[in-house]
Specification:
about 90 residues, two-stranded antiparallel sheet, mainly alpha, Recoverin, domain 1, 5 helices, binds calcium ion, single chain
């Protein structure tokens, strides 16, 4: 099975829909230390829960960090996360 960007987004969308009632809930769930930011490690966890293959998890997490983290501080804030969801077309 090929892991395209679309397939990964579809899996994440499915996870969001099945497990959380809104994006904020997902964000807070993966923000384990509650500092209001997601790290690359948090994204890896998200990808694990979205059943994305372990082989590409690190790569995809890196890609997500780079595209979500618009101010390039190495963290994804709630504002950046929200914006990324809007742009990617992932619905709650
Ligand atoms: Ca955090
Ligand atoms: Ca940031």
């Amino acid at each position: 099975m090929a892991w395209t960007k679309e397939k990964i987004l579809t899996n994440i969308e499915k996870l969001m829909r099945s497990k959380f009632s809104e994006p904020r809930e997902a964000f807070d769930y993966f923000d384990e230390d509650n500092d209001g930011n997601l790290t690359k490690i948090d994204f890896k966890k998200m990808l694990k829960e979205a059943d994305v293959s372990l082989l590409i998890r690190g790569l995809v997490a890196e890609f997500m960090m780079q595209s979500f983290d618009t101010n390039k501080n190495g963290l994804v804030s709630w504002e950046e996360f929200q914006e990324a969801i809007k742009v990617s077309g992932i619905k709650k």
